Amino acid sequence: MKPAPFIRHVPKTLDEALRILAEVAPQDGRILAGGQSLVPIMAFRLAKPAHLVDINEVVGLDKISSDGKALSIGARVRHAAFHKPVVANPLGLLLSVVARHIAHYPIRMRGTFCGSLAHADPASEWCLVAATLDATLIAKSTRGERRIAAEDFFAGIMSTALAEDELLVEARLPLLPDDTKFGFNEFSRRAGDFAMSAALVTYRLQNDKITDARVGIGGAEASPRRIAEAEAALNGEVPGDKTFRAAAEVAAKAIEPLEDHQTNAEYRRDLVRAVVRRALEQSA
Ligand SMILES: Cc1cc2nc3c(=O)[nH]c(=O)nc-3n(C[C@H](O)[C@H](O)[C@H](O)COP(=O)(O)OP(=O)(O)OC[C@H]3O[C@@H](n4cnc5c(N)ncnc54)[C@H](O)[C@@H]3O)c2cc1C
Fold first, then answer.
1. Global pTM?
2. From the CB of 251, is ligand 1 less than 6 Å away?
């Protein structure tokens, strides 16, 4: 099917984009970034926005930069930008490991990091990264700027704290200490499909024991999040099979699994157990 008719606006500056968005948002106006989620749902007529504010020519939104504390990712930065490490910090390698799991190459050439966050698919890899690493999301509108912590940003399946007239201009990810270990694992039935469950773990070692553990789960609940119980099961322990299995078990118990036509709660808990253990094994 073809999308329902719409008017496309192509602002060149951020101010212009925000002004147009303020005008058209109440008339079902939407931002168009990479179009890799929005265009398919428009083609199926699941969304019929009357206006699209295409941000692909807005200057200044295509930047990735670091101030030594955090990595800033602008609204036009594509998934493919992360195929190679973008910063000489463990975060650069982590992002390049994760990027390869997103969809397929052509989709990664168009889809954007911030578009993924705004779309908030529960299984999005970038949403999992943002939640696990406690990203800060910068939203702008003609009313001003808001900084939103990742834990307050994701509000359920394809739902965020963004107001209809707000543009997510930038995502900020904290740089990781140089000795950070990390692991990522996801399960999907076919390569390139959305994950049915995914885990991202990071930690450091102090006197051979785990410290500062982060365990994030995506694809299993309505929004990705850190699992405090699993982090507590890791902190203070020596890394190894016994510790990893124990933490994976705790994570599987802690989640409130999504159920759908393919999976019941028990199956998703099994997946979470597996992806957490595998991510931890990879980290070691
Ligand atoms: C076959 C296929 C497989 C895929 N597999 C995966 C996968 O495995 N993992 C994964 O994470 N994704 C996957 N995707 C989705 C892809 O990653 C999209 O690129 C991503 O979800 C949205 O980014 P986008 O830039 O394309 O956003 P768009 O499609 O342009 O927009 C998506 C939504 O976000 C809003 N939006 C976009 N940017 C902003 C912004 N800066 N501020 C506020 N709102 C904004 C739009 O208005 C729209 O509602 C897949 C897509 C396809 C077609």
1. 0.97
2. no
Backbone angles phi, psi at 129, to 5 degrees: -60, -45
Choose one of 18, 27, 32, 36 to mutate for the ligand 1 pocket test, by most ligand atoms within 8 angstroms of C-beta.
Answer: 36
Dist. CA 120 → ligand 1 center (Å): 8
Tell me if 215 sits within 8 A of 197, measured CB to CB.
no
Q: Which atom of ligand 1 is nearest to the CA of 37?
A: 29
Q: Is the CB of 214 under 6 A from ligand 1?
A: no
As a whole number of angstroms, the distance between CA 64 and CA 71 comes to: 7
Angle at 132 between CA 128 and CA 137, to 5 degrees: 80
Tokens of 150: 């990742």
pLDDT in tens, 52-98: 999 999 999 999 999 999 999 999 999 999 999 999 999 999 999 99
pLDDT one-digit tens code per residue, 128-176: 999 999 999 999 999 999 999 999 999 999 999 999 999 999 999 999 9
The full DSSP string for 68-88 is SSEEEEETT-BGGGGSS-SSS
The residue written with tokens 């948002």 in the block is: 25
Nearest in space to 56 (alpha carbons), one of 32, 79, 38, 28:
32
Distances (CA, A) of 107 to 3, 50, 149, 182, 271: 19, 24, 27, 26, 26
Name the token pair of 69: 């504390």
Q: Is 160 in the pocket of ligand 1 (CB under 6 A)?
A: no
What DSSP string describes 30-73?
EEESS-TTHHHHHHTTS---SEEEE-TT-TTTT-EEE-SSEEEE
